[in-house]
Amino acid sequence: MPPLPQRHGSHLQVVIVIAIVLTTQTARGNIAADDNVRERGALCGLIELANGRAALESSDSQLGKDMADLLELNMSLADSSWLDIFRQTDAREKPRDFPEAEFREHKDWPGRWPKWKTAAESLLKADGQKEALTKHKLQAMTQEQRVSIRAAVARITAEAEAIESLATADAPETHLLNDEKLKTLLNEQIYGGNPDAEPPAAATKLFTSPTASNRAGYCDGTTQTNAAKTVTVALICICTADQSKAGSEQKACEHTTGLTTDWNAASAPPATVISQAVKLCDLKTKHKLSAASLESRLAAVTGLIARKSGQATLGKTINGACTGKEDGGMCVKYSNLGTGSTDKVTDIPWVGGLSAIATQLRQHEEAVKIRKEAARQLKAKKQLVQALLYTERPQQIETAKHDKNAPETEKVTKNCAVIEKATECRKNGNCKWTKETDETGKHCELNTTAAAQQATQAGTGGTQTGKKCYYHTKKEACEAENKNVKADEKSVCGWIEEKCKGSCFDLDKKLALIGVAL
After folding, report:
1. For 414-423, what is each residue's pLDDT tens digit?
2. Which segments constitute the Trypanosome variant surface glycoprotein C-terminal domain (predicted)?
3. How far, CA to CA in Å, does 52 sit from each of 6, 48, 56, 186, 200?
Protein backbone atom coordinates (compact mmCIF):
# COMPACT_ATOMS: atom_id res chain seq x y z
CA MET A 1 0.00 0.00 0.00
CA PRO A 2 1.54 3.30 -0.98
CA PRO A 3 2.17 5.84 1.79
CA LEU A 4 -0.41 8.58 2.42
CA PRO A 5 0.46 11.91 0.84
CA GLN A 6 2.05 14.46 3.22
CA ARG A 7 0.64 18.01 3.63
CA HIS A 8 3.63 20.25 3.44
CA GLY A 9 3.86 22.97 6.10
CA SER A 10 1.37 21.43 8.56
CA HIS A 11 3.92 21.21 11.34
CA LEU A 12 4.80 24.85 10.86
CA GLN A 13 1.13 25.84 11.12
CA VAL A 14 0.76 24.01 14.42
CA VAL A 15 3.81 25.75 15.80
CA ILE A 16 2.44 29.14 14.74
CA VAL A 17 -0.94 28.47 16.37
CA ILE A 18 0.69 27.41 19.63
CA ALA A 19 2.90 30.49 19.58
CA ILE A 20 -0.12 32.76 19.08
CA VAL A 21 -2.00 31.12 21.94
CA LEU A 22 0.96 31.39 24.28
CA THR A 23 1.54 35.01 23.29
CA THR A 24 -2.13 35.84 23.92
CA GLN A 25 -2.09 34.16 27.31
CA THR A 26 1.07 36.05 28.23
CA ALA A 27 -0.48 39.35 27.13
CA ARG A 28 -3.60 38.66 29.12
CA GLY A 29 -1.45 38.02 32.17
CA ASN A 30 0.03 41.54 32.10
CA ILE A 31 -1.55 44.94 32.72
CA ALA A 32 -3.11 46.12 29.47
CA ALA A 33 -4.76 49.30 28.20
CA ASP A 34 -8.09 50.11 29.89
CA ASP A 35 -7.74 47.30 32.44
CA ASN A 36 -8.77 49.75 35.18
CA VAL A 37 -11.16 51.95 33.22
CA ARG A 38 -14.19 50.83 35.29
CA GLU A 39 -12.40 51.50 38.57
CA ARG A 40 -11.26 54.87 37.25
CA GLY A 41 -14.86 55.80 36.33
CA ALA A 42 -16.22 54.76 39.74
CA LEU A 43 -13.53 56.65 41.68
CA CYS A 44 -14.00 59.72 39.48
CA GLY A 45 -17.70 59.56 40.35
CA LEU A 46 -16.62 60.45 43.90
CA ILE A 47 -13.82 62.91 43.07
CA GLU A 48 -16.23 64.88 40.87
CA LEU A 49 -18.22 65.77 44.03
CA ALA A 50 -15.27 67.52 45.68
CA ASN A 51 -14.45 71.18 46.15
CA GLY A 52 -18.00 72.58 46.07
CA ARG A 53 -19.27 70.83 42.94
CA ALA A 54 -21.86 68.99 45.05
CA ALA A 55 -24.80 70.95 46.44
CA LEU A 56 -27.56 69.70 48.71
CA GLU A 57 -30.57 68.33 46.87
CA SER A 58 -32.86 69.51 49.68
CA SER A 59 -32.29 72.72 51.59
CA ASP A 60 -33.68 74.08 54.84
CA SER A 61 -37.23 75.43 55.03
CA GLN A 62 -38.34 79.00 55.87
CA LEU A 63 -39.50 77.88 59.31
CA GLY A 64 -37.46 80.47 61.20
CA LYS A 65 -38.54 83.33 58.94
CA ASP A 66 -42.23 82.42 59.12
CA MET A 67 -42.07 82.22 62.91
CA ALA A 68 -40.27 85.57 63.10
CA ASP A 69 -42.97 87.15 60.90
CA LEU A 70 -45.76 85.88 63.14
CA LEU A 71 -43.99 87.06 66.30
CA GLU A 72 -43.45 90.49 64.77
CA LEU A 73 -47.07 90.70 63.62
CA ASN A 74 -48.34 89.64 67.03
CA MET A 75 -46.16 92.20 68.78
CA SER A 76 -47.15 94.97 66.37
CA LEU A 77 -50.76 94.52 67.53
CA ALA A 78 -49.85 94.34 71.21
CA ASP A 79 -50.63 96.98 73.79
CA SER A 80 -47.82 99.46 74.44
CA SER A 81 -47.43 98.09 77.97
CA TRP A 82 -46.32 94.74 76.50
CA LEU A 83 -43.72 96.40 74.29
CA ASP A 84 -42.46 98.43 77.23
CA ILE A 85 -41.25 95.35 79.10
CA PHE A 86 -38.67 94.82 76.35
CA ARG A 87 -37.21 98.33 76.49
CA GLN A 88 -33.84 99.09 78.03
CA THR A 89 -34.13 101.60 80.85
CA ASP A 90 -31.53 103.99 79.46
CA ALA A 91 -32.12 103.27 75.76
CA ARG A 92 -35.84 103.06 75.13
CA GLU A 93 -35.54 102.07 71.47
CA LYS A 94 -33.31 99.07 72.21
CA PRO A 95 -34.52 95.68 73.54
CA ARG A 96 -33.05 94.26 76.72
CA ASP A 97 -31.98 90.76 77.70
CA PHE A 98 -34.32 88.67 79.82
CA PRO A 99 -34.77 90.35 83.26
CA GLU A 100 -34.94 87.21 85.36
CA ALA A 101 -35.56 89.05 88.62
CA GLU A 102 -38.72 90.67 87.22
CA PHE A 103 -40.31 87.63 85.60
CA ARG A 104 -39.04 84.71 87.64
CA GLU A 105 -42.55 83.25 87.90
CA HIS A 106 -42.76 82.74 84.11
CA LYS A 107 -40.80 79.51 83.79
CA ASP A 108 -40.99 79.31 79.99
CA TRP A 109 -40.04 82.92 79.29
CA PRO A 110 -36.23 82.54 79.39
CA GLY A 111 -36.39 80.16 76.42
CA ARG A 112 -38.89 82.27 74.49
CA TRP A 113 -37.41 85.68 75.26
CA PRO A 114 -34.64 85.72 72.58
CA LYS A 115 -37.17 85.44 69.76
CA TRP A 116 -39.50 87.95 71.41
CA LYS A 117 -36.57 90.30 71.79
CA THR A 118 -35.74 90.00 68.09
CA ALA A 119 -39.37 90.64 67.15
CA ALA A 120 -39.52 93.70 69.41
CA GLU A 121 -36.30 95.25 68.15
CA SER A 122 -37.72 97.10 65.15
CA LEU A 123 -41.05 97.82 66.87
CA LEU A 124 -39.45 99.81 69.69
CA LYS A 125 -38.42 102.54 67.27
CA ALA A 126 -40.61 105.59 66.72
CA ASP A 127 -42.47 104.32 63.64
CA GLY A 128 -41.75 100.66 64.25
CA GLN A 129 -45.32 99.45 64.67
CA LYS A 130 -46.52 101.38 61.63
CA GLU A 131 -43.74 99.94 59.48
CA ALA A 132 -44.44 96.40 60.70
CA LEU A 133 -48.14 96.65 59.87
CA THR A 134 -47.25 97.98 56.42
CA LYS A 135 -44.85 95.07 55.92
CA HIS A 136 -47.66 92.62 56.71
CA LYS A 137 -50.13 94.58 54.53
CA LEU A 138 -52.29 95.56 57.50
CA GLN A 139 -51.65 99.31 57.38
CA ALA A 140 -55.31 100.06 56.58
CA MET A 141 -56.51 98.37 59.76
CA THR A 142 -58.38 100.64 62.17
CA GLN A 143 -57.52 100.87 65.84
CA GLU A 144 -60.82 99.12 66.65
CA GLN A 145 -59.93 96.19 64.41
CA ARG A 146 -56.44 96.12 65.82
CA VAL A 147 -57.73 95.81 69.37
CA SER A 148 -60.37 93.28 68.48
CA ILE A 149 -58.12 90.75 66.69
CA ARG A 150 -55.30 91.09 69.21
CA ALA A 151 -56.36 88.09 71.29
CA ALA A 152 -56.83 85.88 68.24
CA VAL A 153 -53.43 86.74 66.79
CA ALA A 154 -51.80 86.10 70.16
CA ARG A 155 -53.45 82.69 70.28
CA ILE A 156 -52.43 81.86 66.71
CA THR A 157 -48.86 82.92 67.45
CA ALA A 158 -48.75 80.75 70.57
CA GLU A 159 -49.90 77.79 68.50
CA ALA A 160 -47.24 78.57 65.90
CA GLU A 161 -44.58 78.68 68.62
CA ALA A 162 -45.68 75.24 69.81
CA ILE A 163 -45.47 73.87 66.26
CA GLU A 164 -42.02 75.36 65.75
CA SER A 165 -40.84 74.08 69.12
CA LEU A 166 -41.89 70.52 68.30
CA ALA A 167 -40.35 70.73 64.83
CA THR A 168 -37.01 72.01 66.08
CA ALA A 169 -36.96 69.37 68.82
CA ASP A 170 -37.44 66.61 66.24
CA ALA A 171 -35.21 68.32 63.67
CA PRO A 172 -32.56 70.35 65.54
CA GLU A 173 -30.01 72.59 63.83
CA THR A 174 -27.34 69.94 64.45
CA HIS A 175 -29.16 67.65 61.99
CA LEU A 176 -28.94 70.20 59.18
CA LEU A 177 -26.16 70.60 56.64
CA ASN A 178 -25.34 73.41 54.25
CA ASP A 179 -23.37 73.42 51.01
CA GLU A 180 -20.20 74.73 52.63
CA LYS A 181 -20.24 72.08 55.34
CA LEU A 182 -20.93 69.40 52.73
CA LYS A 183 -17.93 70.61 50.73
CA THR A 184 -15.68 70.31 53.79
CA LEU A 185 -16.93 66.81 54.63
CA LEU A 186 -16.42 65.52 51.08
CA ASN A 187 -13.02 67.17 50.65
CA GLU A 188 -11.80 65.43 53.81
CA GLN A 189 -12.46 61.99 52.31
CA ILE A 190 -11.40 62.84 48.74
CA TYR A 191 -8.41 65.15 49.27
CA GLY A 192 -7.64 64.82 52.98
CA GLY A 193 -8.98 68.34 53.59
CA ASN A 194 -9.79 71.53 51.68
CA PRO A 195 -7.04 71.82 49.04
CA ASP A 196 -5.23 75.08 48.31
CA ALA A 197 -5.64 74.28 44.62
CA GLU A 198 -7.29 71.64 42.50
CA PRO A 199 -5.80 69.23 41.66
CA PRO A 200 -3.88 69.32 44.95
CA ALA A 201 -0.23 70.31 44.51
CA ALA A 202 1.14 68.24 47.39
CA ALA A 203 0.59 64.72 48.67
CA THR A 204 0.87 65.67 52.35
CA LYS A 205 -2.86 65.43 53.09
CA LEU A 206 -3.57 62.61 50.66
CA PHE A 207 -1.62 59.86 52.42
CA THR A 208 -0.92 58.69 55.91
CA SER A 209 2.69 57.71 56.64
CA PRO A 210 3.71 54.88 54.26
CA THR A 211 4.90 51.58 55.71
CA ALA A 212 7.84 51.52 53.26
CA SER A 213 9.44 53.70 50.59
CA ASN A 214 8.06 51.73 47.69
CA ARG A 215 4.78 51.17 45.86
CA ALA A 216 3.60 48.58 48.40
CA GLY A 217 4.29 51.03 51.21
CA TYR A 218 1.82 53.50 49.67
CA CYS A 219 -0.82 51.20 48.13
CA ASP A 220 -0.72 47.97 50.17
CA GLY A 221 -1.64 47.17 53.78
CA THR A 222 -4.55 46.53 56.11
CA THR A 223 -7.50 48.88 56.34
CA GLN A 224 -5.72 50.43 59.34
CA THR A 225 -2.16 50.62 57.93
CA ASN A 226 -2.71 51.28 54.22
CA ALA A 227 -1.38 54.76 53.47
CA ALA A 228 -4.06 55.29 50.81
CA LYS A 229 -6.49 57.08 53.14
CA THR A 230 -8.23 59.16 50.45
CA VAL A 231 -10.14 58.54 47.23
CA THR A 232 -7.46 60.41 45.26
CA VAL A 233 -4.70 58.06 46.39
CA ALA A 234 -6.77 55.06 45.31
CA LEU A 235 -7.02 56.64 41.84
CA ILE A 236 -3.26 57.30 41.71
CA CYS A 237 -2.47 53.72 42.74
CA ILE A 238 -4.64 52.14 40.02
CA CYS A 239 -3.81 54.57 37.19
CA THR A 240 -0.15 55.65 37.56
CA ALA A 241 2.59 53.32 36.36
CA ASP A 242 5.75 52.66 38.32
CA GLN A 243 8.86 54.41 37.06
CA SER A 244 10.36 51.03 36.12
CA LYS A 245 7.42 50.02 33.92
CA ALA A 246 8.04 47.70 30.98
CA GLY A 247 4.72 47.54 29.11
CA SER A 248 1.42 49.42 28.77
CA GLU A 249 0.82 50.04 32.46
CA GLN A 250 0.47 53.78 31.90
CA LYS A 251 -2.63 53.09 29.75
CA ALA A 252 -4.52 51.13 32.41
CA CYS A 253 -6.98 54.02 32.91
CA GLU A 254 -6.62 55.88 29.61
CA HIS A 255 -5.89 53.83 26.48
CA THR A 256 -5.04 56.57 23.98
CA THR A 257 -1.85 58.19 25.25
CA GLY A 258 -1.84 56.96 28.82
CA LEU A 259 -0.51 58.95 31.77
CA THR A 260 2.79 60.41 30.64
CA THR A 261 4.42 60.88 34.06
CA ASP A 262 5.39 57.76 36.00
CA TRP A 263 5.68 57.55 39.78
CA ASN A 264 8.93 56.81 41.56
CA ALA A 265 7.44 55.38 44.75
CA ALA A 266 10.64 55.89 46.71
CA SER A 267 8.79 59.06 47.76
CA ALA A 268 5.27 60.47 47.69
CA PRO A 269 3.90 61.37 44.25
CA PRO A 270 4.77 64.89 43.06
CA ALA A 271 2.26 67.46 41.81
CA THR A 272 2.49 66.30 38.18
CA VAL A 273 1.59 62.71 39.11
CA ILE A 274 -1.33 63.85 41.28
CA SER A 275 -2.58 66.29 38.66
CA GLN A 276 -2.63 63.88 35.71
CA ALA A 277 -4.62 61.31 37.70
CA VAL A 278 -7.18 63.77 39.09
CA LYS A 279 -7.66 65.38 35.66
CA LEU A 280 -8.98 62.07 34.38
CA CYS A 281 -12.18 63.15 36.21
CA ASP A 282 -14.71 65.85 35.31
CA LEU A 283 -13.83 68.80 37.55
CA LYS A 284 -16.38 71.20 36.04
CA THR A 285 -19.89 69.76 36.26
CA LYS A 286 -22.08 70.63 39.26
CA HIS A 287 -24.18 67.98 40.99
CA LYS A 288 -27.20 67.85 43.30
CA LEU A 289 -26.39 65.36 46.02
CA SER A 290 -28.73 63.27 48.14
CA ALA A 291 -28.05 60.40 50.51
CA ALA A 292 -29.29 57.94 47.90
CA SER A 293 -27.12 59.33 45.09
CA LEU A 294 -23.98 59.33 47.26
CA GLU A 295 -24.64 55.75 48.34
CA SER A 296 -25.07 54.80 44.68
CA ARG A 297 -21.74 56.37 43.71
CA LEU A 298 -19.99 54.68 46.62
CA ALA A 299 -21.54 51.30 45.79
CA ALA A 300 -20.16 51.64 42.24
CA VAL A 301 -16.66 51.59 43.78
CA THR A 302 -17.10 48.98 46.50
CA GLY A 303 -18.74 46.64 43.99
CA LEU A 304 -15.40 46.52 42.15
CA ILE A 305 -13.37 45.51 45.20
CA ALA A 306 -12.37 41.91 44.50
CA ARG A 307 -12.27 39.70 47.59
CA LYS A 308 -10.26 36.54 47.49
CA SER A 309 -8.52 34.33 50.00
CA GLY A 310 -6.30 36.45 52.22
CA GLN A 311 -6.83 39.82 50.53
CA ALA A 312 -9.06 42.23 48.62
CA THR A 313 -7.98 44.49 45.78
CA LEU A 314 -9.39 47.44 43.88
CA GLY A 315 -7.88 47.44 40.39
CA LYS A 316 -6.09 44.85 38.27
CA THR A 317 -3.59 42.54 39.97
CA ILE A 318 -1.60 39.76 38.32
CA ASN A 319 -0.12 37.90 41.25
CA GLY A 320 -1.79 39.55 44.22
CA ALA A 321 0.66 42.46 44.27
CA CYS A 322 0.15 46.18 43.56
CA THR A 323 3.60 47.13 42.24
CA GLY A 324 2.56 49.48 39.46
CA LYS A 325 4.22 47.18 36.94
CA GLU A 326 2.69 45.11 34.15
CA ASP A 327 3.53 41.79 35.77
CA GLY A 328 2.52 42.82 39.30
CA GLY A 329 -0.59 44.95 39.52
CA MET A 330 -2.10 48.44 39.26
CA CYS A 331 -4.25 48.37 42.39
CA VAL A 332 -4.90 49.13 46.06
CA LYS A 333 -4.63 46.10 48.30
CA TYR A 334 -6.22 45.39 51.71
CA SER A 335 -4.71 42.31 53.30
CA ASN A 336 -7.36 41.99 56.01
CA LEU A 337 -10.43 41.98 53.73
CA GLY A 338 -10.13 38.45 52.36
CA THR A 339 -13.06 36.11 52.00
CA GLY A 340 -12.39 34.58 55.40
CA SER A 341 -12.15 37.93 57.21
CA THR A 342 -14.74 39.47 59.51
CA ASP A 343 -13.55 42.99 58.65
CA LYS A 344 -15.82 45.22 56.57
CA VAL A 345 -15.26 47.28 53.45
CA THR A 346 -16.38 50.33 55.46
CA ASP A 347 -13.21 49.85 57.54
CA ILE A 348 -11.38 51.43 54.61
CA PRO A 349 -11.07 55.03 55.90
CA TRP A 350 -12.46 56.87 52.87
CA VAL A 351 -15.23 54.30 52.29
CA GLY A 352 -16.33 54.55 55.92
CA GLY A 353 -16.05 58.34 55.80
CA LEU A 354 -18.24 58.69 52.73
CA SER A 355 -20.73 56.20 54.16
CA ALA A 356 -20.98 58.39 57.27
CA ILE A 357 -21.63 61.44 55.07
CA ALA A 358 -24.49 59.57 53.40
CA THR A 359 -25.95 58.95 56.86
CA GLN A 360 -25.64 62.67 57.66
CA LEU A 361 -27.35 63.53 54.38
CA ARG A 362 -30.26 61.23 55.21
CA GLN A 363 -30.58 62.84 58.66
CA HIS A 364 -30.50 66.28 57.01
CA GLU A 365 -33.20 65.29 54.52
CA GLU A 366 -35.48 64.02 57.28
CA ALA A 367 -34.96 67.22 59.28
CA VAL A 368 -35.77 69.37 56.24
CA LYS A 369 -38.93 67.36 55.64
CA ILE A 370 -40.11 67.94 59.23
CA ARG A 371 -39.28 71.64 59.11
CA LYS A 372 -40.96 72.18 55.75
CA GLU A 373 -44.19 70.65 57.04
CA ALA A 374 -44.05 72.91 60.11
CA ALA A 375 -43.34 75.92 57.87
CA ARG A 376 -46.38 75.03 55.76
CA GLN A 377 -48.55 75.12 58.88
CA LEU A 378 -47.08 78.46 59.91
CA LYS A 379 -47.83 79.95 56.50
CA ALA A 380 -51.45 78.86 56.92
CA LYS A 381 -51.61 80.64 60.27
CA LYS A 382 -50.20 83.82 58.74
CA GLN A 383 -53.01 83.71 56.18
CA LEU A 384 -55.53 83.12 58.96
CA VAL A 385 -54.64 86.49 60.48
CA GLN A 386 -55.73 88.18 57.25
CA ALA A 387 -58.90 86.09 57.17
CA LEU A 388 -59.80 87.16 60.71
CA LEU A 389 -59.44 90.79 59.81
CA TYR A 390 -61.69 90.74 56.77
CA THR A 391 -64.26 88.13 57.76
CA GLU A 392 -64.92 89.39 61.29
CA ARG A 393 -64.96 93.13 60.67
CA PRO A 394 -68.55 93.98 61.82
CA GLN A 395 -68.26 92.09 65.10
CA GLN A 396 -64.75 93.39 65.68
CA ILE A 397 -65.78 97.00 65.43
CA GLU A 398 -68.75 96.53 67.70
CA THR A 399 -66.68 94.71 70.31
CA ALA A 400 -63.95 97.30 70.14
CA LYS A 401 -66.51 99.96 71.06
CA HIS A 402 -67.52 97.97 74.11
CA ASP A 403 -63.89 97.76 75.15
CA LYS A 404 -63.89 101.54 75.58
CA ASN A 405 -66.78 101.62 78.06
CA ALA A 406 -65.00 100.53 81.20
CA PRO A 407 -62.22 103.14 80.92
CA GLU A 408 -64.90 105.81 80.28
CA THR A 409 -66.70 104.90 83.52
CA GLU A 410 -63.41 105.04 85.38
CA LYS A 411 -62.76 108.48 83.91
CA VAL A 412 -66.19 109.79 85.00
CA THR A 413 -65.64 108.43 88.51
CA LYS A 414 -62.37 110.33 88.81
CA ASN A 415 -63.96 113.52 87.43
CA CYS A 416 -66.67 113.44 90.10
CA ALA A 417 -64.19 112.84 92.90
CA VAL A 418 -62.21 115.99 92.18
CA ILE A 419 -65.26 118.28 92.40
CA GLU A 420 -65.51 119.95 95.80
CA LYS A 421 -68.42 122.37 95.25
CA ALA A 422 -72.06 121.29 95.43
CA THR A 423 -73.18 123.55 92.58
CA GLU A 424 -70.60 122.14 90.14
CA CYS A 425 -71.32 118.57 91.21
CA ARG A 426 -75.07 118.94 90.64
CA LYS A 427 -74.46 120.46 87.18
CA ASN A 428 -72.56 117.32 86.12
CA GLY A 429 -75.14 114.79 84.98
CA ASN A 430 -72.90 111.87 85.92
CA CYS A 431 -72.31 113.00 89.52
CA LYS A 432 -74.33 113.41 92.70
CA TRP A 433 -73.75 115.47 95.88
CA THR A 434 -73.98 113.19 98.93
CA LYS A 435 -74.09 115.70 101.82
CA GLU A 436 -76.90 118.21 101.49
CA THR A 437 -75.87 120.10 104.64
CA ASP A 438 -72.52 121.16 103.17
CA GLU A 439 -71.85 123.17 100.04
CA THR A 440 -68.16 122.34 99.85
CA GLY A 441 -65.93 119.36 100.51
CA LYS A 442 -65.24 115.91 99.07
CA HIS A 443 -68.87 114.86 98.81
CA CYS A 444 -69.21 114.49 95.02
CA GLU A 445 -69.55 110.88 93.79
CA LEU A 446 -70.44 109.01 90.62
CA ASN A 447 -74.16 108.76 89.85
CA THR A 448 -74.13 105.08 88.80
CA THR A 449 -77.57 105.21 87.19
CA ALA A 450 -76.65 108.10 84.90
CA ALA A 451 -73.24 106.62 84.10
CA ALA A 452 -74.81 103.30 83.18
CA GLN A 453 -77.21 104.97 80.78
CA GLN A 454 -74.36 106.90 79.15
CA ALA A 455 -72.22 103.77 78.87
CA THR A 456 -75.08 101.89 77.19
CA GLN A 457 -75.47 104.62 74.59
CA ALA A 458 -71.72 104.71 73.96
CA GLY A 459 -71.47 100.93 73.66
CA THR A 460 -74.30 100.69 71.12
CA GLY A 461 -73.51 103.79 69.13
CA GLY A 462 -76.54 105.57 70.58
CA THR A 463 -79.00 103.11 69.04
CA GLN A 464 -79.93 101.27 72.27
CA THR A 465 -81.49 102.58 75.48
CA GLY A 466 -81.68 101.18 79.01
CA LYS A 467 -79.14 100.16 81.58
CA LYS A 468 -75.72 98.80 80.74
CA CYS A 469 -75.98 94.99 80.61
CA TYR A 470 -73.00 94.32 82.83
CA TYR A 471 -74.56 96.28 85.73
CA HIS A 472 -77.08 93.47 86.22
CA THR A 473 -76.05 90.79 88.72
CA LYS A 474 -79.10 88.54 88.35
CA LYS A 475 -80.15 86.52 85.33
CA GLU A 476 -83.79 87.62 85.54
CA ALA A 477 -82.92 91.31 85.50
CA CYS A 478 -80.46 90.76 82.67
CA GLU A 479 -82.98 88.99 80.45
CA ALA A 480 -85.65 91.55 81.27
CA GLU A 481 -83.74 94.04 79.09
CA ASN A 482 -85.00 92.05 76.10
CA LYS A 483 -88.72 92.37 76.87
CA ASN A 484 -89.35 94.88 74.07
CA VAL A 485 -87.15 93.16 71.51
CA LYS A 486 -88.99 91.70 68.51
CA ALA A 487 -88.45 88.14 67.31
CA ASP A 488 -86.32 89.18 64.31
CA GLU A 489 -84.21 91.66 66.28
CA LYS A 490 -80.97 91.16 68.15
CA SER A 491 -81.19 90.81 71.94
CA VAL A 492 -79.96 93.69 74.07
CA CYS A 493 -78.44 91.57 76.85
CA GLY A 494 -77.64 87.94 77.50
CA TRP A 495 -76.74 85.85 80.59
CA ILE A 496 -73.37 84.32 79.61
CA GLU A 497 -70.94 82.51 81.93
CA GLU A 498 -72.80 83.70 85.04
CA LYS A 499 -72.61 87.34 83.91
CA CYS A 500 -74.87 89.75 82.07
CA LYS A 501 -73.21 90.73 78.81
CA GLY A 502 -74.09 92.86 75.84
CA SER A 503 -75.67 91.11 72.88
CA CYS A 504 -72.83 92.11 70.57
CA PHE A 505 -70.82 89.10 69.56
CA ASP A 506 -68.52 87.79 72.26
CA LEU A 507 -65.35 87.97 70.20
CA ASP A 508 -63.09 86.39 72.76
CA LYS A 509 -65.35 83.36 72.92
CA LYS A 510 -65.50 83.03 69.16
CA LEU A 511 -61.75 83.39 68.81
CA ALA A 512 -61.27 80.67 71.38
CA LEU A 513 -63.37 78.37 69.21
CA ILE A 514 -61.32 79.36 66.18
CA GLY A 515 -58.15 78.51 68.13
CA VAL A 516 -59.47 75.05 69.00
CA ALA A 517 -60.40 74.41 65.39
CA LEU A 518 -56.96 75.33 64.04
Report:
1. 467 778 888 8
2. 416-515
3. 75, 9, 10, 9, 15
